[in-house]
Amino acid sequence: MTDDTATTVIPHAGIAMVLPQDWFVVELTDDDQRVADVTALVAQQLGDSDELAPLRDHLTRDLLAQTARAAQAHGLLLAISLMQVDGVPVPASVTVHHLPGARLDDHGRAVIAEVARTDAAPGQSVDLGETPHGVVLRRVRATPLAHDVSDLTEQGTTVEAFVVDYWVEPTGTQDLVQLTFSSPLVGARDALVTLFDTVTRSVHAVPVDAEG
User: Fold this and answer.
1) 90: which residues sit within 8 A by CB, 6+ positions away?
2) Considering 92, 134, 152, 175, which has the largest number of Cβ atoms within 10 A of its Cβ?
3) Neighbouring residues of 71: CB distance < 8 A, sequence distance ≥ 6
4) If we measure between CA atoms, which residue out of 164, 163, 195, 8 comes closest to residue 85?
């Protein structure tokens, strides 16, 4: 995987994170920008040939629907991995949500733990840790996979993925941030969880006037 990274300032939330440079970020807080980002992503991946027009239309519709749902659920951004290892795509995505008023105090941890137990799946794990910038609760689980992101990375439709949810409380902020990573590469789970941990450890507070 590439060592190149880029800092992404998350609009209107007073936080920033560091993503690999070959992840494509879709803005969710501005509807016009969301549509423009989705259009640019599909064009970048599929070009403008007439033969691929039906696939472009299909992926655009799917991604617009997916990002609209994320935006309605207080989503801040969706980032999609365009990484390749030895020419092989590494499909993954992360959706970042703002959770106003939520905290990782004793009550908040209990609420999240109850949510985790409610939809528990075989092999699910939940653990509490710290980042350089605050406290984090992590849940690793299996889930069915929607086909749109895997199509973009030319992996085809997959029926199962693994998902890693993080609830982060960056020092200096008033609200929780939830990051939900997903990938169909179950065989690369350990390596990808390490990457997801690294990205999550980079989430930190920034002055609101530094957002751009």
Assistant:
1) 1, 81, 83, 84, 153, 183, 185, 188, 192
2) 92
3) 28, 29, 31, 34
4) 195
Q: Two tokens at 153?
A: 């990375």
Structure confidence by residue, pLDDT tens digits, 104-122? 776 666 666 666 666 656 6
Hey, CA dihedral for 104, 107, 140, 94, is it positive or negative?
A: negative
Cα–Cα distance for residue pair 30/140, rounded to 1 Å: 30
Alpha helices in 28-182 (DSSP H): 31-46, 53-72, 106-118, 147-152
Q: Which residues contact 87 (CB under 8 A, 6 or more apart)?
A: none
Mean pLDDT for 48-58 is: 89
Q: How far apart are the first and last CA of the chain?
A: 28
